Every structure is written in structure tokens, then in C-alpha cells.
Fold this protein.
Amino acid sequence: MKDVKRTEPRQINFRISEEEYNRLKQMADDTGLSLSGFVKRKALDIKTKNPKIAKKDAVEIASELRRIGVNLNQAARHLNHKEGGLYEATDSLVGVLEEVRAEVKKIWERLA
């Protein structure tokens, strides 16, 4: 086992229930800190700020944005394959754009 150099030479150990552990772990995850970092900040009465968007929500929003990007790429590909002249919107393109609009609206609602 290799030596790990620590900046803090002291360690504190204490026992907590499974329920307390789960609660602390969730609170740490919500703030984006490690469990030990979160507990240390709380013990020293250092304020912790929750991010505006929870990690779980950020992952879902990223997924929704990815779907929007795919839909926009499909619409752009459709427009680029149309030969010369003015482009007439087809029902399928209008459907894709309406779907994109609905997905963007859902994201804005979650952020509000």
C-alpha cells in the first residue's frame, strides 16, 4: 500500500445510522460535494450552496437537449437535401419543428 500524503493530519471517526448516512449522502450529492467534504463543512459551520439544478435534473435536461439536437439535425438534413428554389415546408418537417419547440418549452418550464 502506498503512502498517501494528506494536508490535514487529524482524522475524526463517528458512527451514524443507515438513515442518517443516506440523508447526509443525499445532501452531499445535492451540493456536489463528497460526503466527507460536506460533513466537514457542516461541522465547521461553513455555508454550502445547493446548485440551481440538481445533478439528476441536469442529466435529464442534457438528455432532452440531446434529443432536440437530433431533431434539429434531421430538419437541417432535410432542408439541405432539397434541390434549388424556395423550400416548401412539409408536414414531416413541421412536425419535427413542433416537437423541438415542445421540448424546449419543457426545459424552460423545468428551469423556471
Notes: The mean pLDDT is 79.
